[in-house]
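Cross-posting from the chemistry board since nobody answered there.

I work mostly on the small-molecule side, so proteins are not my area. We synthesized pyridoxal-5'-phosphate and want a rough idea of how it might sit in this target. Sequence and SMILES are below. Is it possible to get a predicted 3D structure of the two together?
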Amino acid sequence: MSNEKEFWNEETLKPLVSNRSAIMGGTAWAAYAPDPRKLISFAGGIPDVPSLPNNLILDATERALKNNRTESLQYGGTLGPIALRTALAERSVQTEQFEVRSEHVIITGGAAQGIGLVCDTLLNPGDVVLVETPTFPGTIRTLKSYGVELIPIEMDSEGVKLAAIEDALTALEKKGKKPKFLYCIPTHQNPTGKTLSLERRKQLLTLCSEHQLLILEDDPYGEIWFEEPPPSLFSLSEGGTIRVLTFSKIVATGLRLGWTLAPPDLISRMAALRYDMGSSVFLGNIAAELIRSNQLENHIKNLRGIYSRKLTKLEEALELYCGEHVRWERPAGGFFLWLELLKGLTAEAVVTAANEEAVIVGNGNNFNVTPSDSNATEHIRIAFSYVPIEEIEEGIHRLGDAMKRILAEKGKGS
Ligand SMILES: Cc1ncc(COP(=O)(O)O)c(C=O)c1O
């Protein structure tokens, strides 16, 4: 074969790559690029840094190696480490209303791989998927790579709108089509922070069961609550839906460890499709030790306090510095506050002006499922999880200044 430069370039790769690779393009997703300025970042759904549980992980690692040395350092199969599957199933007695068995569990490289595996197992090019909008851009990206048609489903103040699902199903039926599943984040949603009420959850499950519409429930933030949320759709449907979970937000994103709950036959299908020889048994056994020692429960309780205090600080600062320009509803948990912009402020203008003040916030339009999703109002997403609590007031002060500057410049122009 010819030398690297001649062969490996964009032009020569084009006819070689798969359809999925062609859709995704050539730029790899990576964590945020460093910025030399002293930024205050409300950008990413990233956990609080000081509370990352180094010591708990060190202790659990020692126990995993002492108690289970051979198993921890060998292949474990594509369903994932049995010790963790069993520990998660046992934990469900406290955390779920439905008794999960280890056959309901597959261990994955974070929620992201769980979603990818569900898509690998269920989707063909040309399929249709219903997606609540706005939503997590990582999933939009994943779904698009399968060459499927995405139908945005609007949300109201409570979450995904049932009438919008019905309308979409009727319109699709007329074309002889049926969606493969509905993707939603019913608890402390990313980006809106909304949580679907118990009543709406039950109605959603009834609607989906009438139409035999499968639900893919993405739930990375459910355990980070300030007011306890209703049971998951998976619990309420007694295991009839798919639920994707992760250790990213309750332990550490760097573990790249998560799990998916689904009917056992579907779990087997997902495991059968895997070519990565399964998730790390070493990491899985560490997580199992964390669960078994009860240290995880205490850590999560501690996190709830940390994030709730950050949210309170954020709300106080918003009242003080941005009050008349914005509106929001306090989320009952999670990492995100969805800030509605008033008085003609656009997300684009606020993101740009805030950036000039060295404050990073998320443009709400980036969470739309399709560029043409109708936005009656403009929003920015404020992630309050990562920013140190003592920097929140300063960050929001700068955001308020940015808004005032935009409005003053607008005033001059008119
Ligand atoms: C809604 C949602 N789903 C999935 C993920 C992916 O999480 P993980 O790190 O577990 O892959 C994220 C990460 O931010 C998320 O917000």
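Reply from a structural biologist on the board:
Welcome over. Reading the output above for you: The chain has two domains: 33-52+298-413, 54-294. The chain has a mean pLDDT of 94. Happy to explain the token format if needed.
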